[in-house]
């Protein structure tokens, strides 16, 4: 290998390494795709369903977003709580009762009520949280 070949090879390698570092520091994975946002950790909050801010959860199909978690009433007795940020590019999800799924209006990803991917472009499931209802108090926790 002569000097010119050596410098060309090293230069190409440096460009690949620098591009990977740049993408990682900007929230992209090494393939140039947006990195999935981090789901909230250590979640533990309680929603008083008698308060006006939580009234949407009184009706089946109602939902709200609190502390990075989307909470939906999926039946008269059941709730679902999952990370609110779409795992594709972080857009905040909505709950669609008619199809019983979480939907992203940004690029159309859909997730089941337990957070599994129904269709992309999102490829990673949402983080699911536990819920318990005691009286009018709905606890959401990891
Ligand atoms: S940000 Fe949700 S599908 Fe792209």
Describe the structure.
The chain is of the alpha+beta class. It has 2 domains: about 35 residues; about 100 residues, Rieske [2Fe-2S] iron-sulphur domain (Rieske Iron-sulfur Protein), CATH 2.102.10. Bound molecules: FE2/S2 (inorganic) cluster. The site of FE2/S2 (inorganic) cluster (FES) has 11 residues, from loops.
Annotate the secondary structure layout.
Layout: H1 3-25, E1 44-48, E2 63-66, E3 69-73, E4 79-83, E5 94-96, E6 101-103, E7 110-112, E8 117-119, E9 128-134, E10 137-141
Antiparallel strand pairs: 1-10, 2-3, 3-4, 4-9, 5-6, 6-7, 7-8, 9-10
The protein binds FE2/S2 (inorganic) cluster (FES).
Q: What order do the SSEs take from the amino end to the carboxyl end, as H and E? A: HEEEEEEEEEE
Distance between the termini: 58 Å
Biggest sheet strand line-up: 1-10-9-4-3-2
Task: Give average pLDDT, whole number.
Answer: 86
What small molecules does the structure contain? FE2/S2 (inorganic) cluster
Helix count, DSSP H or I runs of 4 or more residues: 1
Largest sheet: 6 strands, antiparallel
* Beta-strand content: 25-35%
> How many domains is the backbone divided into?
2
Q: Tell me the CATH superfamily of the largest domain.
A: Rieske [2Fe-2S] iron-sulphur domain
CATH topology of the largest domain: Rieske Iron-sulfur Protein
CATH class of the largest domain: Mainly Beta
Report the uncertain regions: 14-26
Structural class: alpha+beta
**What helical percentage do the residues reach?**
10-25%
